[in-house]
Amino acid sequence: MNTNINVKRENLALRMRGKSIFVHEKERRCVNCAYFRQYYAENAGNLYGFVSVPLGQCLVTGKDDKRAICGACKHFERRESN
Predict the structure, then answer these.
(1) For the chain, what is the total number of helices (H) and then of strands (E)?
(2) What long-range pairs does 37-42 form, CB within 8 A, spacing at least 24?
(3) What is the pLDDT of residues 9-57, one digit of tens each?
(4) With DSSP H G I counted as helix, E B as strand and the rest as coil, what are the percentages for the chain, rounded to 5?
């Protein structure tokens, strides 16, 4: 990859600010469902890793790009606590 592009990617990654949303484990939201699989993206910084994105897939309905904080559907089953 071009060195100039790598430098731009590094600078962009350093300037990015993240925001978090807390969803209580007792809420009926997709993110708390046993059938929801969260999507992850490769980290754009200089460290190798993955970061979660607010999208996923429902394993029952097969819908892609489902929002993690959407209200739960009729197939909702609570995820077991660790």
Answers:
(1) 1, 3
(2) 38/68
(3) 777 766 766 667 788 888 888 888 999 998 888 876 667 788 888 888 9
(4) 20, 25, 55
- Under a CB-based contact definition with an 8 Å cutoff, are residues 5 and 17 in contact? no
DSSP secondary structure, 28-54, as one string: -BGGGBTTEEEEEEE--SSS--EEEEE
The SS3 call for residue 58 is strand
Phi, psi of 37 (to 5 degrees): -115, 115
Distance, first Cα to last Cα, the chain? 41
